[in-house]
From TrEMBL:
Database matches in InterPro entries: AB_hydrolase_1, AB_hydrolase_fold, AB_hydrolase_sf
Natural source organism: Arthrobacter glacialis
Name this protein carries in UniProt: Alpha/beta hydrolase
Pfam short name (any one): Abhydrolase_6
GO molecular function, one term: hydrolase activity
Domain spans labelled AB hydrolase-1: 22-238
Keyword set, alphabetical order: Hydrolase
Coiled coil spans: none
Record PANTHER family: MONOACYLGLYCEROL LIPASE
Amino acid sequence: MNYLSINGEELYSEVAGAGDAVLLLHGGFCSLESLRGQFDELAQNYQVFAFERSGHGRSADINADYSYARGIADTLAYLDAHGLQSVHVIGYSDGAIIGLMLALEHPQRVRSLVAISANLDPAVFTPAAGNGPRLDSPPSSAQGEVKPDLERMHYGRLSPDGAGHADAVLAKLMRLWTSEPQIDPASLAAVTAPTLIMSGDRDSIPPAHSLLIAASIPGAQLSIVPGTGHGLIAERPELIGTLVRDFLAQL
């Protein structure tokens, strides 16, 4: 296994392919396995980089709460460790939030951005909007059929902390998701990277919120994936892969 020392933590990393650099950022309580299809497909035409944040996948947990600021710092350190000045960023959920903030705060590092199921603040999950705080691995399909919790299964199989530590990770994630991020939509006007915003039409991120994000970023594209919830990357992987590759090919 390949680990890198990032800000004092040993984080699992994978690199494959050749060509322009693409960075994949996984969601909360996810591992790289949630993006495996995209990783393998993109590696046919790009050099793909991915790492698992602390407490996720094969990376051990930390003795502290999570924050998006730490996610950004670890991402920058990861890019520096590979000597990457700028990359195409593809992020899902928590990874999409980190991607948005990276494009906003460190524009020179982001060549383009695909943000899948991002939100700007926790208010999007209010009961009035018909949503509650989400897990990045969906408990059910868009049709309501209960599915196994695949990410919990991956956690139990991959985590060096053991399957029993999952609840501690989820508790920290719930604190993160109910307090962060706090991104002013108006601030997104400063994003200069070509951007694709994507979410499911039955996502816990309402389509109107995704539209707000896209409309706030100059020139951003918007894709609402039909028949999918917050687990859209698992529910329609081929369609999402096509949308992502078409977007990158336009650049």
